[in-house]
Amino acid sequence: MGADVEIFYRSTRGGADPATASAAILKGLAQDGGLFVPEAIPALDKSLKELAGMSYQEVAYEVLKLFLTDFTEEELKDCIRRAYDEKFDTREIAPLAEVDGAYYLELFHGATLAFKDMALSILPHLLTAAARKNRVSNQIVILTATSGDTGKAALAGFADVEGTKILVFYPKNGVSPIQERQMVTQKGANAFVAGIHGNFDDAQTGVKKIFSDQALAKEMEERGYQFSSANSINIGRLAPQIVYYVYAYARLLAKGKIEEGEPIHAVVPTGNFGNILAAYYAGKMGLPIGKLLCASNENKVLYDFFRTGAYDRNREFVLTSSPSMDILISSNLERLIYHAAGNDGQRCARFMAQLSGAGQYEITRDMLASLSGFYGNYATQGEASATIRRVFEACGYVMDTHTAVAASVYEKYRKETGDRTKAVVVSTASPFKFVGSVMKAIAPEEASGSKAEEFALIDRLSALAHQKIPAAMEEIRLARILHSRECEIEEMPRAVREFLRLPL
Questions:
Q1: Where on the phi/psi map is residue 404: left (φ > 0), alpha (ψ -120 to 50), or beta?
Q2: What HEC string does 15-56 produce?
Q3: Number of other CB atoms surrounding residue 308 within 10 Å
Q4: Which residue of 32, 124, 462, 480 has the smallest Cβ count within 10 Å?
């Protein structure tokens, strides 16, 4: 494998036995409700110069072998080969675009045009390999809440994968029309999609409650099922996200844009905190990461947290033009809190209990000081829209609404600090996925009208930006709607039972 030490995974809440990587991937969530974290962050064992000569697939192996230590070299390379193939519309998998004084890491070249493809292309293969490795004969039931992009990427990844079923819950009025259409047209006999009457946090909380229902778990076990998760709470989602930060640095080094060892900032549009946590882990592995710029939209719970050390979800929930970031409970932050608490599961569990009860907690000054590598800020919808327009007019480059939040925050950071360290801005979705908001920014006179005109706007954006419409977008233009289920939050367990044909 090339990894000298086997990495085991512990719960952030300290109440579960250590698990191997494959067992942690299978379980998704620890028995005590915590998230799995590696006992130690492994160091890169290839030099940055060596990595600079590698393909995306080769970098993926060098990173994942260090985290997923109970997978054989053959198993891991097979998962990587199956994941990062012609599903992506560029051989680079994650190309960098030099635009407006930064390097935009484009993570939207996969099957669903969003960064979730980067991890959800490989998770089904890791999961089925893990099931074989652990002699699991049960069908794996993937249960996922989505704020828009995870749902489609998970559905696409798991559709008709033998030995699996997938259930996705999304906020009925909290995703873009294109995101919804991508999900409700998903084929696959093993797939189920439902819109809930609530927001993403409601969906995520509902999924966590179903996961922790021990009576249901026992009933499912008797019928040959077991739950796992495709959300970024699953370590099998998080580890592959580390790869693209290492790859981005390697590509900049290979192109002569940076010197070996030169630090770069990572600017990440952040909702559930998984994407930026992957950058944090990359830095802990030895990648020269400078600042981690955590970019929020008007649901600025993370901005307030990094400023004050207080996390408080008791606030108005704002539906914005960057819906994948419309989140007040950033699940992956729990992993960072665990590390900031000195890897003390009991301390972390107390904070999470406060969040579950009162909806808020406050970390100590020492813990907050240990997070000084993070910079938090936010952008309003107006600021993000202005950034889309400004960059398009100046550079001819079109970005989506989430990327625009990151670009806006990066602009604020540079004005505030004068820091000119080179930066990678994480571009999380194709502008075609959020075409209504993008067109309002660059051609407002053409963007007024009903949601039914989304595909007319896509055609127009293609012409304005001189970009070919992605094949994945063309596929859903005429696709038939296959999922029309809606339910109340409290009806989610019943919907699961119905799909799995369990007694009601």
A1: alpha
A2: CCCCECHHHHHHHCCCCCCCCEEECCCCCCCCCHHHHHCCCH
A3: 13
A4: 480
Q: Which CATH architecture has domain 96-112+236-431?
A: 3-Layer(aba) Sandwich (3.40)
Residue 375 pairs with which residues in a beta bridge? 293
Single-letter amino acid code for the residue at 391: V
Contact yes or no for 433/176 (Cβ under 8 A): yes
Nearest to 147 by CA among 334, 239, 274: 274
Is the separation of the CB atoms in 339 and 40 below 8 Å?
no
Q: Which two tokens stand for residue 95?
A: 């190309």
Per-residue pLDDT tens for 213-248?
A: 999 999 999 999 999 888 778 999 999 999 999 999
Tens-place pLDDT, residues 310-365: 999 999 999 999 988 999 999 999 999 999 999 999 999 999 999 999 999 999 99
Strand order in the sheet with 289-296: 96-99, 102-106, 423-427, 264-269, 289-296, 374-378
Residue 120, both tokens: 């959800």
Residues 6 or more apart whose Cβ sits within 8 Å of residue 425: 102, 103, 104, 105, 267, 403, 406, 407, 410
Would you state the structure tokens that stand for residue 360, as one six-digit string?
């808020």
Where exactly are the structural domains of the chain? 96-112+236-431
pTM across the whole model: 0.92
255 is catalytic: no
CA distance 419 to 410: 10
In the prediction, which pLDDT does 302 show? 98
- 146 in Cβ contact with 173 (< 8 Å): no
Least trusted range by pLDDT, from 35-39, 205-209, 300-304 = 205-209
- Kindly name the residue from 65, 116, 208, 300 that is annotated as catalytic: 116
Please tell me the distance from the alpha carbon of residue 83 to that of residue 104, in angstroms, as a whole number. Answer: 22
Radius of gyration of the chain (CA): 21
Residue 347's contacts (CB-CB under 8 Å, 6 or more residues apart) are: 341
For 419, the 3-state DSSP assignment is coil
Copy the structure tokens of residue 241: 């996200």
Task: State residue 2's pLDDT score.
Answer: 41
